[in-house]
Amino acid sequence: MTMTQMQAARAGKITDEMKIVAQEEKMDINVLKERVANGTIAICANINHKNLHPYGVGEGLCTKVNANIGTSSAFPDPEPEIEKLNIAIAAGAHSVMDLSTGNNIDASRHAILEHSTVMVGTVPIYQATVTAIKERGAVVKMTEDDLLHTIEKQAKDGADFMTIHCGVTMDVINRMRAEGRYMDVVSRGGSFITGWMLYNEKNNPLYERYDDILDICAKYDVTMSLGDGLRPGCLADATDHAQIQELLNLGGLVKRAWDRGVQVMVEGPGHVPFDQIATNMKLQKSLCHNAPFYVLGPLVTDVAPGYDHITAAIGGTMAAVNGADFLCYVTPAEHLALPNNQDVKDGVIVTRIAAHAADIVKGVPGAREWDLNMAKARKQLDWEAQMKLAIDPQTAREKRASRNPEGTTACSMCGDYCAVEIVNKYLGATIEHC
Amino acid sequence: MTMTQMQAARAGKITDEMKIVAQEEKMDINVLKERVANGTIAICANINHKNLHPYGVGEGLCTKVNANIGTSSAFPDPEPEIEKLNIAIAAGAHSVMDLSTGNNIDASRHAILEHSTVMVGTVPIYQATVTAIKERGAVVKMTEDDLLHTIEKQAKDGADFMTIHCGVTMDVINRMRAEGRYMDVVSRGGSFITGWMLYNEKNNPLYERYDDILDICAKYDVTMSLGDGLRPGCLADATDHAQIQELLNLGGLVKRAWDRGVQVMVEGPGHVPFDQIATNMKLQKSLCHNAPFYVLGPLVTDVAPGYDHITAAIGGTMAAVNGADFLCYVTPAEHLALPNNQDVKDGVIVTRIAAHAADIVKGVPGAREWDLNMAKARKQLDWEAQMKLAIDPQTAREKRASRNPEGTTACSMCGDYCAVEIVNKYLGATIEHC
């Protein structure tokens, strides 16, 4: 009988995964164990994901970064997605999500799980939907068992966490309709479930069968990632009745998962004005009993397609500073197309910048030291050290090399008039005179 | 006898520039006039900058964006800088600063002023320094009159605002040395002045001759932009004794400028941890009597060379939400090289994103409506409207066109499984049934 990380922690057992996380994050192992037992830290490590390097998500740990990859009906080939997986890992992602909706979803997932040393998340309803359309003619013809079978299959394959939209209940949809909304439902999983519920006039099977799903999660130690199906898709919908009604549901579902010994994270918005982000983070932490918070963005404006990795990094920094534990990247292709390799790299690096800017504030061990070492390298005009310390050494090197003669101490912006050189000369000299 | 905008406002006169600003920003003309009179809004419009479209900077107005351009000793040709000027204006900058330190600084400035319809700022000490090195052999051999003559020359040419580092006094330098600092002085102007003061054992001539400088500013209505010569160059130096000591000086200099009828802005940091940004903005507003605040970044981490347009956009949003009125762009080339054309465009767009995200929070007229119109276009899957509303339509169009067959309603990320299409179908249908 396997135990989840949470069950092990509650039994006083220190797992190998806990040891690695505690060592890498410089956290006392007993503090970590306590937090895993209480659920404020999740270690997403499916017992069947054999080559996984374990990471923890939550209280006191560094902010984690996820990259979404996977095929789509327009780009169904799995090969390029493995390339993106490798790019995401090389750029420093702690996790990828396989969002495949192409022809052969099983094959994509197997390939990604086989190659991934980082956490792998899935969204089972995507595969269930694609299968229902193929085999039954429409998303609304999907059966409850279709859904459960897909969850079990993906769990058995080794998915470390799963986005499951259990909180989209009929009362949430009714509240959305009563209060009105500009963009209605923009989450894909949320839209499938909403369509299904409205057509079938039945409540959400992911909610009704929650205990069965928890049994599957417990069996393989899949971390439940409670999806926010009603997340706001534009600033004007942020922090509205539908979103908060669903969040109340999610808070209740967190407790039920913990009661079953299942690890759980909660997913969050979306598109949110900058001044509402802190409130959203604090509300989630309060209503969801300090469960780890996994956020997409938030995007702080709707008007920047092509630059949404940046609108998300702005919101993501604010979110992580105020309690978000895990940032899902957004790429420059968001709202426009499936990301390509460059988009994946840009998305990961920019999200790591947001995570790191927040980790400095959170006091995560090592975060401030990294910046201080860069400052010292700059003061010494030690370019090699600067390049090595850069969050993306390749890009920094290329940009410098492209526009500076080799061996110069300054850069081509200041040229002969480098502030650091001048001050080192005169301030250094004066200090010697003292 | 010409009047500055401030003198005119105080005399109850409504200038043409005030009319344009009030109309474009949807601000009551008398409110605007009052704020110009009080100094909380500056309209940077040199009487000799003939083709200028006037902009206001400050209380209740949209957050402005500046692009730094200009030659360097490594790239002394003025032609490419005019190209950058045009790129910056096309991308939506409200202002450029000519930071030229190349061979022929007069020629660069004349060309930029001639072509620029947006505000032009300069940093006279750059030219004074380059001239001193050429004519006298070292920056420390510069005379006070060299400095004053350069200021007068650039004012007469039409510079709308000037960065002048009047606040770097000997007590500020002494405080820096007593308290210690990792990066000392990273502002170029600050470093020239510091080197000069230490070598000559004299106080800052820009401080000592402040009244003479104000006379020049009053004559041409140059807005004084009080430079922060001791701005922190790394997170570890942020909000330290040297920075705040200089800020105290700047607050005193603001009042002296206003007493003389000279418009004034104050420049701010720099490299600042995310959680210290709000404090910095509020401290400046309090110590500088609500004078408009013009900030560089702030950069929220030191470790991202190649991505500093993004570290600055994160900090810039937080800064503008908390009171900054004017954001100086940072480009991807920061800390590495002189920016090229693409860097200039990226820098302006990303800084406009930060400014706009803040303007939504500030309640600037029209800001929220822009986002709402985008939300409506997305809901209707109206791609042409989405492209037109994008902050950078060209980039959005290119990204979409590169990876989507023409005429598709969805995008290649979701393909056949578009959330918006599904919800429009089922939620729309159900609402009709009601």
TrEMBL record, chains A, B:
Q: What InterPro entries does the database record attribute to this sequence?
A: ThiC, ThiC/Bza_core_dom, ThiC/BzaA/B
Write the Enzyme Commission number(s) for this entry. Answer: 4.1.99.17
| A Pfam cross-reference name | ThiC_Rad_SAM
Tell me one GO molecular function of this protein: 4 iron, 4 sulfur cluster binding
Its keywords, alphabetically, are: 4Fe-4S, Iron, Iron-sulfur, Lyase, Metal-binding, S-adenosyl-L-methionine, Thiamine biosynthesis, Zinc
Residues binding [4Fe-4S] cluster are C411, C414, C418
Its job:
Catalyzes the synthesis of the hydroxymethylpyrimidine phosphate (HMP-P) moiety of thiamine from aminoimidazole ribotide (AIR) in a radical S-adenosyl-L-methionine (SAM)-dependent reaction.
User: What does the entry comment about cofactor binding?
Assistant: Binds 1 [4Fe-4S] cluster per subunit. The cluster is coordinated with 3 cysteines and an exchangeable S-adenosyl-L-methionine.
Q: Which organism is it from?
A: Megamonas hypermegale
Q: Which reaction is recorded as catalysed by this protein? A: 5-amino-1-(5-phospho-beta-D-ribosyl)imidazole + S-adenosyl-L-methionine = 4-amino-2-methyl-5-(phosphooxymethyl)pyrimidine + CO + 5'-deoxyadenosine + formate + L-methionine + 3 H(+)
Task: Tell me the route in metabolism or biology where this protein functions.
Answer: Cofactor biosynthesis; thiamine diphosphate biosynthesis
Task: Spell out the protein name for this chain.
Answer: Phosphomethylpyrimidine synthase
Biological processes per GO annotation: thiamine biosynthetic process; thiamine diphosphate biosynthetic process
Q: Which cofactor does it need?
A: [4Fe-4S] cluster
Residues where Zn(2+) binds: H271, H335
Top-level division of the source organism's lineage: Bacteria
Q: Coiled-coil annotation: which residues?
A: none
Positions annotated to bind substrate: N68, M97, Y126, H165, S187, R188, G189, D228, G229, L230, R231, E267, Y294
Which family is this sequence assigned to? Belongs to the ThiC family.
